[in-house]
Amino acid sequence: MKYLIKIEINDVEFQIHTEASNEREAKDNVWEIIRRKTSLKSIETESAEVRDSSLGRKLAEGIRSALLL
Length: 69
What we know:
Layout: E1 2-9, E2 12-19, H1 23-37, H2 48-52, H3 55-68
Antiparallel strand pairs: 1-2
C-alpha cells in the first residue's frame, strides 16, 4: 500500500510518501527517510551573554532592581 504521512516540525508541515505493507512499516520507513535526508549543516556555540539576555533573565533583573529602590 502507499501511505502519505504528515509530520510537523516547528510549525512547518512536511508530507512523506512511502510504500509499506502496514502502518507500522510506513512509520519505520518515515524515520529512515528522515535519517537519510537530514544533514547537519553547522554547530555553533553561543556566548554566555546571548543566553543570559533571555526574557526570563530580563524579567528577573527588572524585579530585582525594582525591589532595590
